[in-house]
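Write out this protein's structure.
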Amino acid sequence: MAERDLYEVLGVTREASAEDIKRAYRRLAREYHPDVNRDPQAEHRFKEINLAYQTLSDPARRRQYDQFGGAGFTPEMFGFGDIGDIFEAFFGSPFARGTRTARRRTRARPGGDLHVVLDLTFEEAAFGARKDVDVQSLERCPRCEGNGAEPGTAPSRCATCGGSGELSDVRRSVFGTVMTSRTCPTCEGTGEEIASPCTRCGGEGRLPARQTVGVEVPAGVADGMELRVEGGGEGGRHGGYAGDLYLTLRVAPHPAFERSGSDLVTILELPVTTAMLGGEVEIETLDGPERITVPPGTRAGQVLTLRGRGVRNLGRRGRGNLLVRVDLAVPDRLSRKERQLVEQLAELHGDPPGRGPRPGRLRRPR
């Protein structure tokens, strides 16, 4: 509880007006604020002064103090006080006088975020695209323009809390009488209530609506990535800012290509003869048909590279490569003539058919 009579702390009488109390607080705050007064006792003295002011400047607390005394009131309950009052005490600025009112909650509430899955083709993810996304949302009511009040009316001071945004509760305990504050349930701490709610939105300030949001999908995105569209979510209540729209990307697979970062990987089945003799082969890329040179003696598993034919690098210039892994297409069946030709080739290589098993040649993997 307070150690001294709070009127005595401020040097005023019990009949002092609110202006007398504020004037006394200003004078003492200038003298004892710890940032100004280096006396070790200044901090305790200032807390005592602040307790007196916070109690006696509030009509409800002052009535409680006059009726029950200082039980339950301690300097630690209020710290160093409202910054607006301290600012005003030192500088006398009219700006500071508004800070006490500004402590009330604003009626504006931000809108909720929306989450949508956005389907993309493989090509759209690789090169980017503009997509229109339809979402079920809440938008500002056009009748009341989002403030929730019927046109021609305005929100009024809350009758429950008197516009303070909070209610005070007084209770007795073994430690004395304690007063606590809680947010007013009628106005939700805003200090205002709507006497005549908008007939279209019921005072909510928002209406359900289906909206189309344009989205620029950057080139190089991948499956599972998430994009954020600022302000693409639900509209805010009572003039609050809109929420955001979050898009989870779902990229369709490609029948021929697989991604490895910004590179594309595919498998090219080559006839054995082409692999042996070499030549040019036409393949499909994301940019259209391209010719690729197959060098003579190409082995299975060898990788041929087409530079700059991969996916665009996300957030920077350039593209990845197209990596073509060679697989040899060995026929399952041979005609008689084909078999004769293959047997002749085997003989030329010193491996005629019909000979017993020959030792395989092994080499260390690279």
